[in-house]
Amino acid sequence: MTAEEMAGLLTPAAAADALADALRAGVDPEGCPSRTALDVPGGQLLLMPAATGAYAGVKIAGVAPGNARRGLPRITGSYLLLDGPTLRPLALLDGAALTTLRTPAVSALALRHLAPAGPPPRLVLFGSGPQAYGHLEAVAAVREPAEVVVVARKAPGAARLTARAREMGFEARTGTAADVAGADLVVCCTTAREPLFDGRLVGPGATVVAVGSHEPDARETDTALVRRAAVYVESRAAALREAGDLLVPEAEGAVGPGHISGTLADLVAGRLPVGGPPNCPQLFKSVGMAWEDLAVAVALFRAAGGDNSET
């Protein structure tokens, strides 16, 4: 299934529903196989397998930082969806397109619980790549913003994303990292390896989502924010293995592993209060997990008319 064939089959909201359904059906993110990463001449090769009773799947993704200067996507790959009982191949999906849908859907699911109904929020969006576009759509599906402020390293990219936000009917402009001071939502989807903004500027009622890295020494948010915030993750095990946003402050002695307030499964199951504690920012740190790819791949397969009931 190509990216073009996948486009329009599933909205970010429907993909978020698929993730929530998987958690309610008993998927345990803590037991999800860890990501295998292999350094190769062009960058990194990632292998992400997962299985449920009815389906299994594996994503093979490439992260090639040098592709930008070649005019090629930074993220490449394919997703092989299999029938669970027989392991018969059912579909081959564009892996980059799947990731571009899956990651914003994870963020949207978290925001349903951490940033529920209220006045239209002011959104500060860091980045101007495919994930930034996906997150703009996903955030809008949860809370239509009163204003979108785009902060990006390259001015042309920031201008294009700002124009897209205006096409969607939102007030939008480009901005700087200092704009987080007045933000209700801050979404970080960049390739940055160092903090993007001063966490002391983030208001106590704001929600921050960081999705850009899955390496222990890379982060988009700083120690000041992590120390102040109620922190939520997809899985404690995955976060404490891969989330530099949390591991760097821990290495500095600013926080401990117990600083994590809860997980996505806790939020979906209602084990945590909607909106989180009122006196501090809420931070959702995502690293991306194989169970999420499988849940969204199955939803795409079914939306395209696929059926494995005969196996």
Automatic annotation (TrEMBL):
Superkingdom assignment: Bacteria
Pfam families per UniProt: OCD_Mu_crystall
Protein name, UniProt field: Ornithine cyclodeaminase family protein
SUPFAM superfamilies (alphabetical): NAD(P)-binding Rossmann-fold domains (SSF51735)
